[in-house]
Amino acid sequence: MIQLSLIGIGTGNPDHVTLAAVRALNAADLVLLPRKGEAKSDLVDLRRLLCRNLVTDLERTRIVEFDLPGRDAQAEYLDAVDAWHAAIADVWAELMDRYLPEGGLVGMLVWGDPSLYDSSLRIAGRLSASGREVEVKVVPGITSLQVLTAEHRIPLNALAEPIQITTGRRLRERGWPDDAATVAVMLDSGGAFEALPPEGLYIWWGAYLGMGKQSLIDGPLADVGPLITERRAALREQHGWIMDIYLLRKC
């Protein structure tokens, strides 16, 4: 039996790691750290730092890094994601078989929280579907959406109004969601808000939330939209990658 703990670690600030996450990390026999390429080395660097600082017995708990398979950007999106998840599940299974052939506790450090626009739970489900005995535990973490509203010092929703959380792809393709006063946009490859008529919209944007290079902009979308686009491009050029999120509200 493998027990797999998906441990939410927040968005880049080690202070965001919960006591429950620390306990789960120290209980693990094996911790798997994904590498996402040289451009995103900051992400694995933070995971390494957390392991060094929080794991009390590095001789008992084995830390293993692995290269995350890439997604085919040319294939149809859902087909490409399905194949990508299958490839990642195969890597997880191979590492578990290699390092814990008799079973044990495995920890995976998940950026943000495993439940919010993260596929770790779906990938873990493939392990059980393949016939392996895998028990999955989730340790919740602070999400980029929580850090965004905290850093801008705003409530997530307008008073008594609904909010919709969506992706840049869907916002670009479908426009403003029906009956939503506030829209949180994640996984935007860049500038999906430009597909909206900017009048009457306010935006709160943040990149690298929780990290030392955090960047924030807010204001009427008509005024600051071009500034966000320019800042985002410059940051991506400077760091080789970018992770951002924003909140849009009718005003």
TrEMBL record:
GO terms for biological process: cobalamin biosynthetic process; methylation. Its EC number is 2.1.1.152. It holds the Pfam family TP_methylase. PANTHER family: COBALT-PRECORRIN-2 C(20)-METHYLTRANSFERASE (PTHR43467), PRECORRIN-6A SYNTHASE [DEACETYLATING] (PTHR43467:SF1). CDD domains: Precorrin-6A-synthase. Keywords: Cobalamin biosynthesis, Methyltransferase, S-adenosyl-L-methionine, Transferase. GO terms for molecular function: precorrin-6A synthase (deacetylating) activity. It is an enzyme of class 2 (transferase). SUPFAM superfamilies: Tetrapyrrole methylase. Pathway: Cofactor biosynthesis; adenosylcobalamin biosynthesis. This is Precorrin-6A synthase (Deacetylating).
